[in-house]
What we know:
- The complex is a heterodimer.
- By secondary structure, chain A is mainly β.
- Helices cover about 0% and strands about 55% of the residues of chain A.
- Chain A contains no helices and 11 strands.
- In chain A, a hairpin with a 6-residue loop joins strand 9 (about 85-95) and strand 10 (about 100).
- Chain A starts with a strand and ends with a strand.
- By secondary structure, chain B is an all-beta fold.
- In chain B, about 0% of the residues lie in helices and about 55% in strands.
- Chain B has no helices and 11 strands.
- In chain B, strands 2, 4, 5, 6, 9, 10 and 11 form a 7-stranded mixed β-sheet that branches.
- The chains are: A mainly beta, B mainly beta.
Amino acid sequence: TQLLEQSPQFLSIQEGENLTVYCNSSSVFSSLQWYRQEPGEGPVLLVTVVTGGEVKKLKRLTFQFGDARKDSSLHITAAQPGDTGLYLCAGRPSGTYKYIFGTGTRLKVLA
Amino acid sequence: DTEVTQTPKHLVMGMTNKKSLKCEQHMGHRAMYWYKQKAKKPPELMFVYSYEKLSINESVPSRFSPECPNSSLLNLHLHALQPEDSALYLCASSSQGGGTGKGDTQYFGPGTRLTVL
């Protein structure tokens, strides 16, 4: 069974703090996506990474794909209350169009 | 445009009702997905259609019946559901070599909030 473990599961921080969310697996992925989801809404795509060692930046968010394409991280600088939500990673193993979802990280940023 | 649309937004049905959820994408994507999501959990895959053919059924009960009338549309027919089927139902699409958007990425619709009484 292919699994994507996310850590931490829950995170409550003050506005202005930095944080990192991790997404780890023993499987190799052709690509990995990060999504942010609000309650009752669909996941919204933040980024797709496809190359081992790749780093992508989206304003205050920095995403990294591991060299071996088995893990990824999301770093948020100077978190804001608007960053509150459920963060999900999802990876696509080679040779399949089935995406494996991470266990999710619920972030709350307090003003 | 990377939009996936879903209707209805909310649905309340009794255990004897028959209803359908609809999903549409105009990105030329060749793979479409149905997921079920319970509160505070990640989405769980139900079905995958690739080039309009059902390619993955994750052992979903027969009271859920998917249909892909053409490459842009995906339906989920519901019959004799149970209260435990109440959840957010998400549709997604991915390129699989066709259409627009970032390659190898799933794009999700806004979901249908289903309540079974």
